[in-house]
Amino acid sequence: MATTAPTIVSSHHLATLKYAIRDLAVLAADVQKQGHKVLYLNVGDPLKFDFATPPHLIEAVIKAMRDGQNGYAASEGYAPAIDAVRREAERKAIPGVHNIFITQGVGETVDICLTALLNPGDNLLTPKPDYPLYSAVLTKLGIPVNAYDLDEENGWQPDLADIERKITPQTRGIVLINPNNPTGAIYSRQTLQAIAELARKHNLVVFADEIYDKLLLDENADDAKMIAFGSVAPDVPCITFGGMSKNYLVPGWRLGWGIASGNQQAMAGYIESIHRILRARLSANLPMQHAIPAALDGPQDHLIEVNRKLRQRRDLTAAWCNSTPRVSLVAPKAAFYAFAKLQIPEEAHEDDQAFVKALLYEKHVLVVHGSGFGQRAGTNHFRIVFLPQEEVLTQAYANMSLFLAARYQ
Ligand SMILES: Cc1ncc(COP(=O)(O)O)c(C=O)c1O
């Protein structure tokens, strides 16, 4: 007689785990299967478009493999890669760096740094809208999300009053994504100084995710310069996150790092916990780490072309948003994301997610709804990735204009 096997119960923590960007890709595959060409404005991988890895990085990795560099690396990272990141921290004007470690992408840096810090009952301030990896890791750890607003009225700078309101005795740290995904904002010196003040007062660790720090679209404007958090607050316990995926066009190589600065004595136990996890997971890819010195210390020429293309595509995107009824945009100053606001008429009785799905099914354009980034209810936004070539963007925006006009009059 057949017996029913007992159900395999999964972690309760994961019941609410969502990753809107990739979840939507499943629906897009469905639309594609129906024979339609989908215009993808959803995924932040430059290699899916007309951007190419600088050849000298590929050479560095091939050489490492040919030279037999195919074993495990040291758990904290390959020493010349760590040295290159230390020089990069100097260029970012971060003083007092006391620890550096290399990871499998910033995704792993986030996972390790949050896991090593948080205990049950603690909370961590994360931005709203956020890059969903942060809430995913917190969900995995069983830590509630304590989200602070980014203020659209103030160029998407963090809302300092909201941060202060949300700090509790259990708050252990704050995540700053600068330049920001999904808004493309760059934080001002005043914002960074004010956050440093709050971190000092409440004994917070600052996680400065600066993975987009070289994709600067208006570098000559005073309000669009990149300032590293660690450079304005050398005393504040801080881990700066950086990586190769975006600036150096190798997201598939999975290379990231953490740079610890600020009060070394206060951070010693925490840094040791980070290293315990680093050792337990053995190491990041060794041959790929050979590209880190080549990238950080080598020619940066590719960035001129990358930023030129991004600037043109940003301008095209902003022009469409600003000339389209019901759409508005705080123009991004960095990275390749635009977080546009959408005014959906009340009579339509639909939210941003319904808009995104209908747009995909009817006009085959894929963007991601603002609530997928935890943006607060009652507002409607969508994130555009403006990496595709101008022809694709122009076609996508024409489709969206038709869709909006027909659906919302
Ligand atoms: C703000 C931010 N942090 C981290 C990551 C993850 O980067 P990595 O490819 O290095 O894991 C991303 C990727 O899109 C990101 O946007």
Write up this protein.
The chain is an alpha/beta fold and 409 residues long. It folds into 2 domains: 12-51 and 302-408, Aspartate Aminotransferase, domain 1 (Alpha-Beta Complex); 55-297, Type I PLP-dependent aspartate aminotransferase-like (Major domain) (Aspartate Aminotransferase, domain 2), CATH 3.40.640. Helices cover 41% and strands 15% of the residues. The protein contains 14 helices and 14 strands. The longest helix has 22 residues, at 302-323. The structure holds pyridoxal-5'-phosphate.
- The portion of residues assigned to helices is 40-55%
**Ligand set:** pyridoxal-5'-phosphate
Going by helix content, strand content and strand pairing, the class is alpha/beta
Shape: globular
CATH H-tier superfamily of the largest domain: Type I PLP-dependent aspartate aminotransferase-like (Major domain)
> How many DSSP H or I helices?
14
Average predicted local confidence, pLDDT: 95
Determine Rg (CA atoms, Å).
Answer: 22 Å
Order of the strands making up the biggest sheet: 2-9-8-7-6-3-4-5
Which spans have pLDDT < 50 for at least 5 consecutive residues?
Answer: none
Task: List the defining traits of the structure above.
single chain; 409 residues; alpha/beta; Aspartate Aminotransferase, domain 1; Aspartate Aminotransferase, domain 2; eight-stranded mixed sheet; binds pyridoxal-5'-phosphate
Question: Any chance you could write out the topology, listing elements then pairs?
Answer:
Layout: H1 20-33, E1 39-40, H2 55-66, H3 79-91, E2 99-103, H4 105-117, E3 123-128, H5 133-141, E4 145-151, E5 157-158, H6 160-166, E6 171-177, H7 189-202, E7 205-209, H8 229-232, E8 238-243, E9 256-261, H9 264-280, H10 286-289, H11 291-297, H12 302-323, E10 327-328, E11 337-342, H13 352-363, E12 365-366, E13 368-369, E14 381-385, H14 390-408
Parallel strand pairs: 1-12, 3-4, 3-6, 6-7, 7-8
Antiparallel strand pairs: 2-9, 4-5, 8-9, 10-11, 11-14, 13-14
Helix pairs in contact: 2-11, 3-11, 4-5, 4-9, 12-14
Bound molecules: pyridoxal-5'-phosphate.
Pyridoxal-5'-phosphate (PLP) binds next to helix 4.
